[in-house]
UniProtKB/TrEMBL annotation, chain B:
Main location: membrane
PROSITE patterns: ABC_TM1
Keyword set includes DNA repair: no
Membrane topology per record: Multi-pass membrane protein
Name recorded for this polypeptide: Carbohydrate ABC transporter permease
CDD domains: TM_PBP2
Highest classification ranks of the organism: Bacteria, Bacillati, Actinomycetota, Actinomycetes, Micrococcales
InterPro entries membership: MetI-like, MetI-like_sf
Ranges annotated as spanning the membrane: 21-46, 84-108, 120-144, 164-184, 217-242, 270-288
Annotated ABC transmembrane type-1 domain residues: 85-288
Keywords: Cell membrane, Membrane, Transmembrane, Transmembrane helix, Transport
Assigned protein family: Belongs to the binding-protein-dependent transport system permease family.
């Protein structure tokens, strides 16, 4: 990836570098020479970052500040905004639909994160093998990532069709009468979790593969000589060796899981019976459906806080399992 | 899922009976996973080629009795996919060009130039990656809507719709993503300093040093960034759904989602639309899969 090919330019430049190194005196006082002005990196640095930083200011910094301010108002696009203090936050604590959405999102997260870690680690272990076929299967495993959530949801909408969908046909082979999936409030969230894992595990699998290849071979050799079996090797060498990777992946999954929206919007519109209404979906409905932007901002801050707390818990857990 | 010892698996060729069994088991496992990942896509294509009567009655049949393109015609004519294609392509390409340009410029400055405030700026940029997107969504919408002098607005952002319902609503917030800057910075940071010093002695300007010496060396990185940005742009859904509502401004993803809501049981045209929408990214993936896979692994290792 980062290999730098020695090009004609760099070869020439190296010549100049060595030539100038031979005359250190001239090089040292080049700033004082009248006919060659020094290049002020100070100014160029600012010119280079100016536009990106202005965009960053306008579309990240200002919005974050605005979100804080808005969350203390009843701003609703039409009409003036009034300062309401902590009223929005007080309302959130007693908002039954928010609490339902939070419960749904927590259920989603509790299913999605462990399953996501297990599937991406399992597939990475499968592919961590010295064989020419690995590249082909790696491509096959990664393919769902390429499709958009809209395309994936449309495909799964068809896969999960209660009568003619692939899921229930295959379940029928084993004599299982499959549920109505997206039309059943007990199964709709499970279906969304399965779809999300299917469509996203490829990326994390690649990250795990990188992590696996970073574990020193000598460690495996050492425990093999000690007579460790496959499970012991996995438990005492592979798992600890991957702890940093697992932390990265689980953090990314937690942040993503709490913000799940596309899948629920596309597959079930939050239904049936609000069983797949997620927090972000609720924020979307409040902010852009009901134009209650002040309330929506307060909701998004509460979600931010929840994500931060769970990321911290995850950090504690992964760092404890490391020692 | 097997949890076989990766070290044993890495040994050269299967020779003992035990290893032969292991190899066979491995093939069974990887083929089983491949079926779950690839078969739904094949099934989608097959369904899109089936006439209406065959779709529900013989849904599992792997090849239609009478293959037809009528679903594609139906999808293409009932929804202005041509227009959506143009919108999505324009937005994704603009995103690629701007992110490579601004990401390289700022990434280079953060990696190789000395200037005051650099550490604070880069630190702020990096920490912004940890803010969940949902926090800035409502206010970013308002910034775009209230943008001075845009879309009929006056100096105070009153009177018009600002950038809402225009390409700018997608392009501006995503033109110089923190990720692009960080990604390119990693490439420039790994390059030798001597090249710049030599050129500086020759009197080259800082812009020339960037554009003619370092940028050509970062071409591979820029290509990976471009591919990842294109995929993300082409596939993005929630933000276009929020800021673009005019029927002529929709992207392919929002268009397909609307199509799905309107034709809930028209599986044939739905699958045809899915194939149409996925074709560009699938094509790019097939052509550039080595770069994509290595790029993702590279990002993950940082």
């Amino acid at each position: 990836m980062t290999t730098i090919q020695p090009t004609a330019v760099s070869a020439d430049a190296m010549d100049v570098a060595t030539a100038s190194a031979k005359t250190p005196a001239r090089r040292r006082d080049r700033h004082s020479r009248p006919f060659r002005k020094p290049q002020p990196q100070e100014i160029w640095g600012w010119i280079f970052v100016l536009v990106p930083m202005l965009l960053f200011l306008t579309f990240v910094i200002i919005p974050v500040v605005m979100a804080v301010v808005l969350s203390f108002t009843d701003y609703a696009v039409i009409g003036d905004a009034a300062w309401v203090g902590l009223e929005n936050y007080r309302r959130i604590a007693g908002d039954p639909i928010f609490l339902l959405a939070l419960r749904n999102t927590a259920i989603y997260t509790l299913m999605f994160v462990p399953l996501g870690v297990a599937v991406s680690l399992g597939t990475a272990l499968l592919l961590n093998r010295n064989s020419r076929a690995v590249k082909l299967f790696r491509t096959f495993f990664y393919i769902p990532v390429v499709a958009s959530t809209v395309a994936t949801a449309t495909i799964w909408y068809w896969l999960l069709n209660p009568q003619s969908g692939l899921f229930n046909i295959v379940l029928g082979w084993f004599g299982i009468n499959g549920p109505a999936w997206l039309y059943d409030s007990k199964w709709a969230m499970t279906a969304i979790v399965l779809m999300s894992v299917w469509s996203g595990f490829g990326t994390n699998m690649l990250i795990y593969l990188g992590g696996l290849q970073g574990i020193a071979r000598e460690l495996y050799e050492a425990v093999r000589i000690d007579g460790a079996n496959a499970w012991q090797t996995f438990r005492y060498i592979t798992i600890p060796g991957l702890s940093r990777t697992t932390f990265l992946i689980s953090t990314l999954l937690i942040i993503g899981a709490f913000q799940v929206f596309d899948q629920a919007y596309l597959l079930t519109k939050g239904g049936p019976g609000n069983s797949t209404l997620t927090v972000v979906y609720y924020i979307y409905n409040q902010g852009f459906g009901g134009l209650k932007m002040g309330y929506a901002s307060a909701l998004s801050f509460v979600l931010f806080l929840i994500i931060a707390v769970f990321s911290l818990i995850n950090f504690k857990l992964t760092s404890r399992s490391q020692s | 899922m097997t949890t076989a010892d990766p070290y044993v698996l890495r040994l050269k060729r299967a020779s003992t009976p035990r290893q032969k069994i292991g190899t066979t088991a491995w093939y069974i496992a990887v083929i089983a996973v491949s079926i779950t990942t690839v078969f739904p896509l094949i099934w989608t294509i097959v369904t899109s080629l089936k006439p209406e009567g065959e779709i529900l009655s013989s849904s599992l049949q792997i090849w239609p009795d009478q293959p037809t393109l009528e679903n594609y015609v139906k999808a293409w004519t009932s929804v202005p996919f041509g227009r959506y294609f143009f919108n999505s392509t324009f937005l994704a390409v603009a995103g690629v060009v701007l992110n490579i340009f601004f990401g390289s410029l700022a990434g280079y400055a953060f990696a190789r130039l000395r200037f005051r405030g650099k550490r604070v700026l880069f630190g702020t940029l990096l920490s912004s990656l940890m803010i969940p997107g949902i926090v800035t969504m409502v206010p970013t919408f308002l910034v775009l809507r209230r943008f001075p002098f845009a879309g009929g607005n006056d100096l105070f952002g009153q009177g018009g719709m600002g950038f809402i319902n225009s390409y700018w609503a997608i392009i501006l917030p995503g033109a110089a993503g923190a990720f692009a800057v960080f990604f390119m910075r990693q490439f420039f940071a790994s390059m030798p300093e001597e090249l710049a010093e030599a050129a500086r002695i020759d009197g080259a300007s800082e812009f020339r040093i960037f554009a003619q010496i370092y940028m050509p060396l970062a071409k591979a990185g820029a290509a990976v960034l471009g591919i990842l940005t294109f995929q993300a742009g082409w596939n993005s859904f929630m933000w276009p759904l929020i800021v673009l509502s005019d029927r002529d401004m929709l992207t392919v993803q929002v268009g397909l989602a609307a199509f799905k809501t309107e034709h809930t049981t028209d599986y044939g045209p739905l699958m045809a639309g899915t194939v149409i929408v996925s074709l560009p990214v699938l094509l790019i993936f097939v052509l550039a899969q080595r770069y994509i896979i290595e790029g993702v692994a590279h990002v993950g290792s940082k």
